[in-house]
Design brief:
The complex is a heterodimer of chains A (277) and B (632). Chain A has 277 residues and is an alpha+beta fold. Chain A contains four helices and ten strands. In chain A, the strands form two sheets. In chain A, strands 3-2-1-5-8 form a five-stranded mixed sheet. In chain B, strands 1-2 form a two-stranded antiparallel sheet. In chain B, α2 packs antiparallel against α4 and α16 packs antiparallel against α17. The chains are: A alpha+beta (277), B mainly alpha (632). At the A-B interface, α2, α3, β7 and β9 of A face α7, α10, α13, α14 and α15 of B.
Chain lengths: 277, 632
Amino acid sequence: MKGHAFRIVAIWLVLTVIAVPLVVLVLGPHLPPGRFSVEAKDQTSANTVLTALLMPIVLLVLVFFGYSLVAFRHRGPAIEDGPPIRGHGPTQLTWVLATGAIVTALAVWGSYTLVETARGAGGGQGPSPTDLPKGHSPRLNIQVIAQQWEWTFRFPSYGGFETRQLALPVHQLVEFHVTSLDITHSFWAYRLGVKADAVPGVDNVAFVTARKTGSFTIRCAELCGLWHGHMYRTGYVMSRSDFNTWVAQQRKADAANLKDLGPYRRSYYPQPFHRAG
Amino acid sequence: MTSAAFERERRPLWQGVIGFNLLSALVLGIGGFFLGTWIGGQIAVGHDYLLGTNQNDVGLFMGYLFGTIGWLAGLGFFNYPLARMAGRPPSHRHHEFAGIGRYFRLCTDHKVVGIQYFFGVGIFFFIGGLNAMLMRTELLRPVEHPFPAGQYISLVSLHGTMMIMMTSAFIVGPFANFLVPLMIGSRRLAFPRIESLTFWLTPLSGLVLMSAIARGGLPTGWTGYAPLADQARAGMDAYIFAFILIGISLTLLGMNLLTTIVTMRAPGLTWARLPIFVWGILSTAILMALAAPVLVAAQLMTVMDRAANTGYYLASQGGSPYLYENLWWFFGHPEVYILALPGFGIVLEILPVFARKPLWGYRLAVAGMLGVTLLSFMVWQHHLFVSGMNSSLRPFYMFTTELISIPTGFIFLNGMGTLWRGRIRFSVPMLFALAFFFNFLIGGLSGIFLSDVASDVTTHGSYFVMAHFHYTIMGGLVFAFFAGTYYWLPKMLGFALNERLAKIHFWLMFVFFNLTFFPLFAAGFLGMPRRVSTYAPGLQGLNDFVSASAFVLGFSMLVFIANLVYSLVFARVPAVENPWESKGLEWQLPTPVPVLDFERIPVFNTTPYEYGVPGAPPVATLAPGAVAAAGR
C-alpha cells in the first residue's frame, strides 16, 4: 500500500507547489481590504498569509478524499469487508503534532504581529487600547457618533465642531473614538481597514493612517434596526491643505450649532429612549 | 414481559379527538394566553404610559406564561404529578402504543418522541427555509425591493432565530431520542416524561416565535443584542419568550441524555465500545446542559429590562450592553458546537458501514469530541474582537479559537483513516456523509480568517461570517441530518425511501449549496455587511447568482419532501431489516422496532464496527438468558 500513499503525497506536492505561489502572487494583491491605509495593508498581508497557509491543508484533505474515493471504490452487488485497520499510532501522532505545530505557529505569529506591529490597530480596542501604531505622532482625534440611523463626526482638536461628513488628512495617524447615542452600531470603513463597534456609554478607539487620497465607504456592520442597511456614507481622504480648507469651511458652517451642542465628551448618556422599529 | 402484553385496543375516533392532545393543548394555550394578557394588563395599568411605550410587555409576558401552562395542561403534563400527589399508584397511562394519535399526545415512548421531533422540527426548518427564499428574493436588486426594510429585517430575524432554535435539536431531537436507547441497550431514556416535555416545548416555542409576526416583527436578528432588544417593539417579547422555552427544553434534553448515557448502558457496553454517535450525543448533551441555562438567564434579564424597567443592558441606567454580548456568546459559541457535534457523530457512525472497515482511530475521535466540548467554552470573545473589549485579551481568544481546530482536525483524520483501503460504496447516506467532510473543510478553515484579529477586522459582521457559518451549520449539520435520515429513517418508520429521488436530492443540494454559499465569501471580502437589504450596485451580479442558486437549493428540499410523501403515503415499500448490513445494535432489531425495543436487556460483546474481523461475535447478544440456557 506504499504505492497509494506515495501517489497521494506526489499529487499533493505538485498541486501545492502550483497553488501557493498562485495565491501569494495572483490572488494576494486582490485580497481585502487593499492598500488604502497602513492598517488595510497589514490586514491584506495577514489575509494573504492565511490563504497561502490554508492551501496545502485544503489540498491534502481533498486529494486524500478524492484519491481514496476513486481507488478504494467497491463495485458490484456483493458487499465485501475491508481490512480491519483500527488505527496507526505514528500517523495519529504525526497528525496531532503537525496540527498542533501549525496552530501554535499561527497563534504566535498572530499575537506577535498584533502586539508588535499593531496589526489589529484598525479594530476597535475599547477605551484603553494596547495595540498602538508606532512611529507616528501626533495623532488627530476624530469622534464617530452613531445613532439610529446616522453618523456624525466631531473634531475635538478643532473646537469640537460637528459634521455629517468625514474627511481625514493623508499620511496622518488618526485616532477614531467611536461611540453611540442609542444602541450598538459598528463603524466600518472598509477600504481604511477600520471596524469598531459603537456602543452606548463606551469610547471605542481604533487607529488608521491613510496612505492615499480618495474616497471610502462607511457602513454600519452591526444590526441596528429598521434602516440598518441604509446607514452608509462616503468619507474622503484629502491632502493636508485640502483638509485644512475643509475644516475651516465646516467650522464656519457649524459655528451656529456649537452653542447648542453639548461640550465634547468621550461618551454620551442620553435619556432612555422610546420604542421604535 | 413481551411487548404484545402492552398493546392496547384502538379506541374510537371521537375518543382520540377529545382528551389530552395537541387540540386541547392549542385550545387551553390560546385561552391561557388571553387570560394571562388580561391579568398582566390589570397588574400593569399605566405601565405602558410610564415607559413611554405603546405596548404592555407585562401583559404579553403574562400571556405567554399562562399560554405555556395551558399548553402543557392541555397535553396532560400535570395529570401524572397531580394523580401521584392525590395518592394514586404510578401507571403507564402515557405509554400509548398504537395508532397515529400517539404522535399528537404526551407519549413516553422514546421512539414516538424521536418521530415527533423529526416532523415537528422539520416543519419549522421548512418555514425557516421559506424565509430564506424570501430574503434572497429581496436581494435580487440592490435598491428597489419587494419588501420594505422593516419586513426584511423581520424575515432575517425570523429565519435566523427559527433555524438556530430548531436546528439545535435537528439531530439530537429525532436521532438521539430514537437511537441512543437502542444503541446502548436501554428501553428508554432516563426521564421519559421530561423527554416528552422537551419535545412539546419545541413546537410551542416555534409558535410563540411566529406570533412575533402579528406583533410587528422583530429587528434584532437571531442574536437579539440587548440595547436594540430593549428598544424593539412587542414582537421582541415573542422572541425572548421563545428562546426561554427552547433554552429550558435544551437544558432538560441535555441532562436527560447525559444521565441516560452515563447510567443506563447495558452490561458489557464499556466506554471504549460506545458507538461514536453516542459519544457525539454525550458531548452535545454536556454542552446543552451547561450552555443553555446561560441563554435563559440572559433572556430573563431582557424580560426585566422590558417589563420592569430595570437597566441591566442600558448604559444610561448604569447597565452595560457588554453584559448581554458576553452572556449571549458564552451560550452562543457552545451552541454552534451543539449544532456541529451530533453531525460529527453521524458521519463517523456512517463511514465505517459504507467503507466496510472499523472506525479508524476511535480514541482520537472521542478525544476530538471531548476536546471540542471543553474548548468551546473558552473562545466566545472572538465574536467581540472589534466590540471594544479589552484589547490585551485578544491574543488569548485568538489562540483558543485556533486551538479548537486541533480536535476538529481529529474528526477529519478519523474519516480519512476509515476510507483508507476500504471497500467504499456510494449509497445515499454515504454521499451525504462525504459531502459533510467537503463542506465542513471549507467552513472550518474559513473560520481561521475570523479567528485572526487583523483578518477579522474585515470579515466580522460581513457576508464572510454568514458564508462561514452556513458552511458549518447547513453544510455540516443539515448534510449530516440528511445522511442520518436516509440511513435510519427506514428503520424508524418502517418504510424504504425512494433511492432515485434521494440521489437527485443529494446532487441538487450538494451542487447548489456550494454555488449558493461559496460566492458569499467573496461578497463578504468585497465589503457587503450582513443583514442589509441595500447593497453596493456592483455586487448585484454576485447576489443574483446566489439568489438563483438558493432557489434551486430550496427546490432540492421539495424533492426530499416529495420523496418522503411518495415513500410513506403512496409506495409504502416495507423497509428491509438491515439494508446496509450494518453491525450496529439498532440494526439487529426487527423493523419496525418493537414497543419495548428489547425482549431482554442485551449483553454487549464488542464494538459495533467489527467489519472484516474474522470470527467477530455479534455486537451484542440479544437474548442473553436464552443463550445461557441453551449452552447449559
